[in-house]
Specification:
mainly alpha; two-stranded antiparallel sheet; about 0% strand; elongated
Length: about 260
């Protein structure tokens, strides 16, 4: 009996040491796998004042919504924005949820940046016809691409009359799309000039002149309205005006 008791004790101790070793080798992963920029932002928020934290989370909601709309459909982005707004308006919020929201926002912004950069890359040349030594532009493929970019520009022009386009967030979202469409238009114009003149008439690229003029006017109107407003925080007005200046510079660069 004594021998059996000793053996059992040894087994129990061995299992205990194994469990301790397993815990040490595999510590809790909460926060350990976060990206450095995510953890930095969380640390900065936690070390700030309560008033600063409240202002931060109001801006965080807008940041997440703006990023989502780059790579989500309109319906998906609306649903995500509604869910985030409801959760942030709860009376009790745990830091676990807030940290998760910060992480979602930073990751969404990284994904949105990647998607935007991909859109701005030059359009690959239309497929060439095969069967001869001379490389020819695939006319049907080129015509589809031209029609697509023309539709994008016309849609933007129509949306400029929408009330949402008068907000700075709305203008920034539209600027992302305008830069992408103008970049594709510039690339396609090179191929349009390579086709025979008789075919070129059906490949007319939509002129963005009116669209750019309307966009410039919208920026001016929004800047005038912002300057005339009297927010409680003057620095907030300066930040809004800075964003409008950035929009003007982006518009000039996109149309240069």
């Amino acid at each position: 009996m004594k021998h059996s008791a000793v053996v059992c004790s040894v087994c129990i101790l061995a299992l205990a040491f194994w469990a301790v070793g397993l815990t040490a080798a595999n510590p809790p992963s909460a926060g350990a796998q976060r990206l450095p920029e995510v953890q930095r932002e969380i640390d900065d928020v936690k070390s700030s004042s309560r008033a600063a934290q409240q202002q931060y989370f109001k801006l965080l909601e807008k940041r997440l919504d703006r990023a989502n709309r780059v790579f989500m459909s309109l319906a998906e982005a609306d649903a995500a924005q509604s869910e985030t707004a409801q959760l942030l308006r709860r009376k009790t919020l745990t830091w676990d949820y807030l940290e998760s929201l910060i992480e979602r926002t930073v990751l969404a912004e990284k994904r949105a940046k990647t998607v935007t950069e991909d859109k701005r890359r030059p359009v690959p040349p239309p497929q060439a016809s095969q069967g001869s030594d001379e490389v020819k532009i695939n006319f049907d493929d080129l015509r589809v691409r031209v029609a697509g970019v023309n539709m994008e520009l016309r849609a933007l022009e129509a949306e400029l009359d929408d009330a949402k386009s008068g907000t700075i967030d709305g203008l920034e979202s539209m600027m992302d799309r305008l830069e992408s469409s103008l970049s594709k238009r510039n690339d396609l114009s090179l191929y349009v000039n390579l086709v025979e003149e008789s075919q070129r008439k059906s490949l007319r690229l939509y002129s963005p002149r009116v669209l750019v003029s309307q966009f410039s006017r919208k920026i001016f109107e929004t800047r005038t309205k912002t300057q005339n407003d009297s927010p409680a925080n003057e620095s907030s007005k300066e930040k809004l005006l800075q964003r409008l200046d950035d929009l003007s510079r982006r518009l000039a660069a996109a149309t240069a």
